């Protein structure tokens, strides 16, 4: 891996503390950082270098999935970090930053490979990128890359504007748009499950699959993010990015090779075939909800409108379910259902593939008139990670009744790397497979846009659901219309 400088904007923020530094530290423990590596940590807070390094050490102790209490070793990792105070909106300060980067490059004998990581609010994405360009930081003899966090735009137009601005400083192949769901090991595993198993590959189409269900349910509420969340809602916070990315990964066709170019091409093709909704039809295919008071795991919780910072009149969506159609020869006729929400019964992200069940009546006589259950292929993405297949089998101790059984595989949680470790490692080595290409983002916004407008105009119902449930009844009815149920 190339030696490089890692320039982190927003280094004193929450994401840096919880995810980015712990990820770098775990890569360090696994010897996955480049031989020579310099981190320039940028923020506005008046830390001295020593103070900042102590702050990072504390963050590692609290948030890293592994922490080896060996001061020498931690110090060895931390000494790669240099804190620098910068007002990122003011181009003048960038001269000092450039000098620091160059000084460290000299000191560590680094080639001018520079990775800029924008872990800052979206309002700063364009100004920072512009300042990187204007200041000459981007004029390197080596390579340059930009990692950018979500949200990428607030709607289709703002996403296009942002991309236009970024492209003045970075080419598409230099931009690494983070969607942390793409970093989840089980999301990355979907391609192997589908393409490395001929039995599944053969069945992965509309001849055998009845429907696909993608659920990301959370038990947390709005937390301390009222300002952001109330203008974003589940639609922007989860659907436009994570849910549609999981849909793309599940539905993509066999790529020519397992490479960033081919995989992203296949994902893009899915998005190009995704049927767009007219604003007037949104209510038929999409359910939106907002949590009311309720109980989660025995604890009473307040409703969304009672949350601090939320107006009583808020019509923000904390739940979205939708039925999507991919109009291509593989998927035509197969509904893809997605649902995501806050304050639901459990924290769980999973994808369930329900297979068609043409012989469901065959055992009616032996089974007290009960149909046999469909085969399900279940991909548990988090917090549990694993795969299971629901088959039917005679219960050998219950009069041979044909019943569903699960064949399961699960991974040991502690050993599974975090999404940020995988993503940062890929960005360090220049592999963009699990980052969102601009066209994926743009096409996702294109699909979401009429929903945003219908929500904005309140032209579809906003269903209330009790905290601790699996969302509004209307979301169950959506599947019942097609003769299906959500598999919980
Ligand atoms: C983030 C959203 O992108 O994903 C949060 O902004 C959400 O609102 C989170 O809670 C869920 O991620 P995970 O990894 O916990 O499923």
TrEMBL record:
Q: Where is the active site?
A: 242
Binding of substrate, residues = 180, 184, 218, 237, 342, 347
Swiss-Prot/TrEMBL catalytic activity: D-glucose 6-phosphate + NADP(+) = 6-phospho-D-glucono-1,5-lactone + NADPH + H(+)
* EC numbers on record: 1.1.1.49
Source domain of life is Bacteria
One Gene Ontology term from the biological process aspect of the record: glucose metabolic process
Keywords noted in UniProt:
Carbohydrate metabolism, Glucose metabolism, NADP, Oxidoreductase
Gene Ontology CC terms, in alphabetical order: cytosol
The Glucose-6-phosphate dehydrogenase C-terminal domain is annotated at 192-487
The Glucose-6-phosphate dehydrogenase NAD-binding domain covers which part of the protein?
7-189
UniProt-annotated binding residues for NADP(+): 10-17, 44, 150
Entry keyword S-adenosyl-L-methionine:
no
Return the InterPro entries for the record.
G6P_DH (IPR001282), G6P_DH_C (IPR022675), G6P_DH_NAD-bd (IPR022674), NAD(P)-bd_dom_sf (IPR036291)
Pathway noted in the entry: Carbohydrate degradation; pentose phosphate pathway; D-ribulose 5-phosphate from D-glucose 6-phosphate (oxidative stage): step 1/3
GO MF annotations, alphabetized: glucose-6-phosphate dehydrogenase activity; NADP binding
As for what it does, the entry says: Catalyzes the oxidation of glucose 6-phosphate to 6-phosphogluconolactone.
Q: Which family does it belong to?
A: Belongs to the glucose-6-phosphate dehydrogenase family.
Stated name of the protein:
Glucose-6-phosphate 1-dehydrogenase
Q: Which organism is it from?
A: Gottfriedia endophytica
Gene symbol here is zwf
């Amino acid at each position: 891996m190339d030696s490089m400088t890692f320039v982190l904007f927003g280094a004193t923020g929450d994401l840096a503390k919880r995810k980015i530094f712990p990820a770098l530290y775990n890569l360090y423990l696994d010897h996955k950082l480049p031989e020579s590596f310099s981190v320039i940590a940028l923020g506005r807070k008046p830390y001295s270098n020593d103070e900042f390094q102590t702050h990072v050490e504390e963050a590692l102790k609290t948030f890293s999935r592994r922490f080896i209490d060996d001061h020498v070793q931690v110090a060895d990792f931390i000494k790669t970090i240099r804190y620098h105070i910068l007002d990122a909106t003011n181009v003048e300060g960038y001269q000092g930053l450039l000098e620091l980067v160059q000084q460290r490059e000299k000191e560590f004998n680094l080639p001018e490979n520079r990775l800029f990581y924008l872990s800052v609010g979206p309002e700063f994405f364009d100004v920072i990128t512009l300042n990187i360009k204007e200041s000459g930081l981007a004029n390197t003899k080596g390579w340059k890359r930009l990692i950018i966090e979500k949200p990428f735009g607030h709607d289709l137009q703002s996403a296009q504007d942002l991309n236009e601005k970024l492209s003045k400083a970075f080419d598409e192949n230099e931009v690494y748009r983070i969607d942390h769901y793409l970093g989840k090991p089980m999301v990355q595993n979907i391609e192997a499950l589908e393409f490395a198993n001929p039995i599944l590959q053969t069945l992965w189409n509309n001849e055998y699959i009845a429907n696909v269900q993608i659920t990301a349910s959370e038990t947390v509420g709005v937390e301390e993010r009222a300002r952001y969340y109330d203008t974003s809602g589940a639609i922007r916070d989860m659907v436009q990015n994570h849910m549609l990315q999981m849909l793309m990964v599940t539905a993509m066709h066999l790529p020519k090779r397992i490479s960033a170019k081919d995989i992203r091409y296949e994902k893009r093709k899915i998005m190009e075939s995704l049927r767009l909704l007219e604003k007037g039809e949104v209510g038929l295919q999409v359910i939106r909800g907002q949590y009311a008071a309720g109980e989660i795991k025995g604890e009473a919780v307040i409703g969304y409108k009672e949350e601090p910072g939320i107006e009583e009149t808020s019509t923000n969506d904390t739940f979205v379910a939708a039925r999507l159609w991919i109009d291509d020869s593989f998927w035509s006729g197969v509904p893809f259902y997605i649902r995501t929400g806050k304050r639901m019964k459990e924290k769980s992200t999973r994808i369930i593939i329900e297979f068609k069940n043409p012989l469901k009546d065959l055992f009616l006589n032996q089974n007290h008139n009960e149909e046999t259950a469909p085969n399900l292929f279940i991909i548990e993405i988090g917090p549990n990670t694993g795969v299971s297949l629901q088959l039917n089998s005679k219960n050998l101790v219950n009069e041979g009744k044909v019943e569903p059984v699960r064949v399961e595989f699960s991974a040991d949680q502690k050993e599974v790397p975090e999404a940020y470790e995988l993503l940062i490692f890929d960005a360090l080595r220049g592999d963009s497979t699990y980052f969102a290409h601009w066209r994926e983002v743009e096409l996702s916004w294109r699909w979401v846009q009429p929903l945003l407008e219908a929500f904005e105009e309140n032209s579809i119902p906003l269903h209330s659901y009790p905290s601790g449930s699996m969302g509004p009844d209307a979301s169950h009815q959506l599947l019942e219309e097609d003769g299906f149920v959500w598999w919980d």
